[in-house]
Amino acid sequence: MALKEKYKTLILPRAKQEVREAAFYYESIRKGLGKLFYKEFKNHSLTLNNFPFFEEKYNIVRVLPLKKFPYLIHFTVNESEKTVSIQAITNNHQDPNTTKLKQ
Question: Which residues contact 29 (CB under 8 A, 6 or more apart)?
Fold first, then answer.
């Protein structure tokens, strides 16, 4: 049985900033909550290394929801290069007009 080839996950600067902002926000609410948010984001990012084909939401952009926090990871998959690019991470309660991804 052949092993599935892993994908490399790249986190773009916009997504890194959004993760930092969300973690800071949650940490300001309760000590340790920001760390839990970051850990959940990191675990979901690692999942994309093995299973990147989640729901296709807009054109080529796919989404993966976090389980414990109301956020979606927005990403694209390049099958030929075996890469996953995390484009953004958005709160489910944000205005979609301000969070649309530029193609």
Answer: none
